[in-house]
Each structure stands twice: as C-alpha cells, then as structure tokens.
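Hey, resending since the last one bounced:
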Amino acid sequence: MGAVVLAGGRSSRMGQSKALLDWHGLTAVAHAVEVVREGVAGGSVCVVRSLGQELPALDAIVVDDAVAHRGPLGGLHAGLAALAGQLEVVFACGVDTPLLAPAFVRRVCGSLRDGDDAVVPVIDGRAQPLLAAYLTAIAPQLQALLDRGALGLKDISGACIVRRLSEQELLADAGLAAADPRLRSAANANTPEEWAVLVAEG
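The structure tokens again:
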C-alpha cells in the first residue's frame, strides 16, 4: 500500500496555500505525509502539486499535476499514474484534514474487497472521496474521464466499481474506534478560522 496527497488547488477561501499552513511546527503537507505513511506501514507516498507550486522539502515522491484546473480528479490521476506498477492500493487525501488518524487510513485500505476499484467512506451522510482507497490500476479509467471533460471525483463511480463504507463499518475496527471514535479524521478546513479550530483540537 501507499498514499497520494493532493497539495494543489487554489485555496481561495483560505487566502494562502493550504499545503503551507502551520500544523504545530510542521507544514500541513509535511504533516499529511507523516500521517499517511504511518497508515500505510511505511509505503511510498506521492505528493501531487500544481505546476510551479512551491513546497518544502518532503520525504515523498513529488509530481506535478500537468494540466492546470482539472480539479481533484486530475490530481488523483497524476498520483495513481506515478505509483502504478509499484503499488496496488493507495489511500488518497488532501492537506486540509489534519486530524486524520493513521488507524483511519489502515481501516479504509483494509476494507477493499475482491472486485472493488475503490472504497469511499461516508461520514455524516457525505461521501469522502479524498479519504478513500483506490487501486492504481484504475489510472486509465481516470484518464478517460478527464479526456471526456470530467473534473470531480464523484465521476469515478460511473467508470469504476466504488463501494461505500459506512460509519458503522469504519468503527467496527477496534483500533479506529479507540483512536478516533468521533471520526474527526474527516474534519476539514477551508478558511483560516476553520483551520484554527482544528489546530486547537489537534
């Protein structure tokens, strides 16, 4: 297993790059890399950035999302393509869910079954495609979606076999239930005020 961290995006409501936000002395992107690497037992981590985006030195593979403004689907495709041939399964996340627990990563990746192309948690009634597990083998299907003009991760379910994972299924794992009983792993921030709340909680 490995992981893909999407670090690009315009961050318009945040007013600055989310990837460079401070998380208790680390940048948000460096923190995300640490968390997912622990969750995938030390596997490879690929960080996808926008063209020309400056990032700190990271212990990760860094690739560019070659075409601007293709949304998270383009970023996910770039990450899967970079890891295809090396890994079978990756966990994908952004940099704006700093309460993400390694146990959450392990639970989601471990929930893939034969026949699944992806597993997407549903928390508070909302699908979480940027806290999900994907097979690297679906990179060609994502390229086909991009070629047709798709931008959103929700479009993946029309081209791949995506299974949803309920809160009850997530918390059936004792490790996750102990580490994150309220599933705060899914809490994200789009504004400085929201980020400050998560920093205080973390």
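The domain at 2-201 is CATH 3.90.550.10 (Spore Coat Polysaccharide Biosynthesis Protein SpsA; Chain A).

Sorry for the duplicate.
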